[in-house]
């Protein structure tokens, strides 16, 4: 067996087991796994295989389940996912897909299941794309609790699920006054989009810190906070630093707050590459010693991150309904803390990369009820390039299904307030 294919599938197998069995984020898993494998081709191929399995997990399971008498151990189920994904979605040659998957089972201590793996994959290969006939692919690929919540919110979950069927382009925020690298399309303000597969570190100006990776939706909260030259600004929960960079570029005197040591390291590295200065504070953003200090605060709160499933399909499988209420409580603590840090007359932008209304729309209603805050509504004039994102309440709600002809965007929510 080819060593490259072996490494590719081994990385994919170990990563998927960590994500699906232990609810670990794919980014965290890959940081550890890929450090053990030097070949960039293996890494790229493994990532493509992993993401395919996560995006199409429901469909893959629907293909496999009728071919089993009983459920195998979870690692064997992962091996079957990998094999069927190669045959149905990645168009790996039949012989290669079956043999390498059987060998993967053997190598990982599941020799007793090699016959099962072989039989299932041969049946799938015999049927080919006919396996997909009659399957409601969109419905299968979204966990039922998310489908129901998004349907109730009016977000058209079938359209959202269709976002799993295409690769995602690269968005960059470019420093004001500088030219964007060649090959991009201007989306809005200083945000540019590049074709799927673009390697950011290969673009002219990367080493010089002329731009940073940031989905266009993620760039909106800092943009809409409308920071003016010399204003004091707090960026709570600041890593990886894209929003901090925007606030600094707008002329703010920025305090960037981050609790996690690993994320602090990344924040510092990103600001150093961009040659931008901010005061970095490692702390729980709810425990700072400020009072009536800031002209503006950006609270991009910790959340379920279900809005970024296009780029990170693992969130569909590692997030559970019971986590939402815990996150809502954390968000409310941060909202109260931000109120204390903000000057009277100061602006507060609340944002989350979540499609769960409990973390977004319902939090904005809660904030609107607080005696210290008044809504500072956003209008179509603020986002003329994305008018469909403005709600009747004057909030911004982006959905991954928006701009589908351009490649979509992340799901974000943002609401702006002023302290009385």
- Global morphology: globular
Mean pLDDT: 95
What's the alpha carbon Rg, rounded to whole Å?
23 Å
Tell me about the biggest sheet? Answer: 8 strands, mixed
Task: Kindly name the structural category.
Answer: alpha/beta
Helix and strand succession?
HHHHHHHHHHEEEEHEHEHEEHHEHEEE
Distance between the termini: 69 Å
Protein name: RsmB/RsmF family (RsmB)
GO molecular function: RNA binding; RNA methyltransferase activity
Family: Belongs to the class I-like SAM-binding methyltransferase superfamily. RsmB/NOP family.
Organism: Commensalibacter communis
Task: Explain what you see.
With 420 residues, the protein is an alpha/beta fold. 42% of the residues lie in helices and 15% in strands. The strands form two sheets. Strands 5, 6, 7, 8, 9, 10, 11 and 12 form an eight-stranded mixed sheet that branches. Strands 2-3-1-4 form a four-stranded antiparallel sheet, with no helix packed on it. Helix 3 (40-55) crosses helix 5 (74-88). Mean pLDDT is 95; it is low at 1-5.
